[in-house]
Structures are given as C-alpha cells and as structure tokens.
Amino acid sequence: MAADPSPEQASDLAVTWYGHSSVLIEVDGFRILADPVWGERVSPSPTIGPARLHPVPVALSALPEIDAVIISHDHYDHLDLPTIDELTRERDVVFCVPIGVGGHLRAWGVPDGRIVELDWDQAHTLTRDGKSLKVVCTEARHFSGRGLTRNSTQWASWSLVGPEHAVFFGGDTGFTERFKLVGDHFGPFDLTLLPIGAYDPLWPDVHTNPEEAVAIHVMIAKPGAPLVPVHWATFNLAFHDWSEPVERLLAAAREAGVATIIPMPGGRVDGARAAGPEDWWSRVG
Fold first, then answer.
1. When comparing pLDDT for 112 and 270, which is higher?
2. In terms of Cα–Cα distance, which of 114, 102, 160, 116 is closest to 134?
C-alpha cells in the first residue's frame, strides 16, 4: 500500500479518491470521508459477490484526522461493515447518514451519540478552529436495501457548505432535473463528485451514465468548477467495459466545456487546479 498523500492540515478544496465512491474531501479546513469501503467484496458473503479490481491503495488506519463520515445509502458498495467497525473502534468520528441507516450502525455497535440521521435538506454543523461546515443531506434518485429488505432506509446525496467553498457528493443516483434545486439552495458548487459507472439501459432511474453526470454538474456547479468522477473502476457492477465510463465522461465534458479531474486510486488532487487529466486508466485497464 502507498502512503496517504494528505497534508497535516486540510486544505480549502481537495479530494483523495480511494476507488469506487470512497473519497476524502477537504473543504475549508475540514476533512469528510464519504462512502468508505475498504472491504474486499461488496456482498453479504465474504466469498461470493463483486470483488475488488484493484487493491485498497491506502490503509484505513493511515488516513489523517477526519471530522465526519458521510454515507449515501445502505447498499454494500457504499456501506461496508468491516470499514465501519474499524472506524468505530479506532476513531472518535461522527457518522452522518440518511434516515434509517442509523439502524444498521447501532446494530454494528456504533454509539448512538456518534450517529446523526438526517432527512433531505436537513443539516448537521461541524465546528473547528472558529470555522463551521454545514453537512447537508440532499436529494438523490436511487433505492436502498441489504439482503432481502428493500427501501426501508433513505438514500441521499450530500452538500458540504463551508464559509468559502461548497462541494457536492452525488453518492449513487440516477438523473433528475431536481438536482438544479440542490444547486440553487446549497451551491453553486466549487467541485462536484458524481457517479459515472455501473449504468445500463435496464436501470436508467438509479445510475447516471457519464453524459448525465456532466449534465448534473452543469446544473449545479460554478463556471469552471471541476468534476471528479466516482462510482467506477473498483467493482464490476454492470456490463460495460472497465474504462468506458471515463472515456465517455471525457468526451461529454469536452463538448460541454466542463473541467475534469481524474485521480488514480489513492491519488490526491487540488480541487482549485483542474489541469487536463493524465490518462492512467488505459495503461491498467
């Protein structure tokens, strides 16, 4: 495993991508860990189900201090029991989750005082060194469920709103024009993290394709703000080729005039500098 690239102090705007939807977001001096999945499989079984296509790039224990963990919903590729267990034991961090997901965490031994359950448009405020960051549970178009249980918990995107910058984490979602309302209320955003993989014509309402991710970015982001793709490259969850999502994303982004930042797994990028992405995926795909 590589060393974590994070500096001692969180920056105003940066992202470290660990694969799939697992990212460490730096906003105005705060660090938010989103949808952390360090497990080998995204499945109820340790031996059956989608396994990693690349190793975990950085040990969970090597991550810097974290102010909060946000979870988009309870699917196995976004809510991982071994990861939550390690974070609970090793770190005194709050978990911000959609309504109902707290039930999973309580069953896994997370203390109730470290669980913040929010409905859409509700916020939890973090404070550090005289600054505050609003962690807002925002709308998404998806579904939830583990095992045979379906839609007993909420799903969400997250808007992180600081004194100087705002970041949008899409989590896992299908396309909806209603994201414009999120941008109107909590943006426009300085950086977006939007899902681009695991799409298929058979399930258009729950997973955005790359062109739809670009369309969402245009609706909610500041002009010139970068898009960082998530929900691709780590688990085989659909029928498209491994590198197809990023290739389609780049074509759509060029046509729309949208800047993109595409780090390698484990790579940290400065969100204020959106230089053209280096093509690393064709070398490993």
1. 112
2. 160
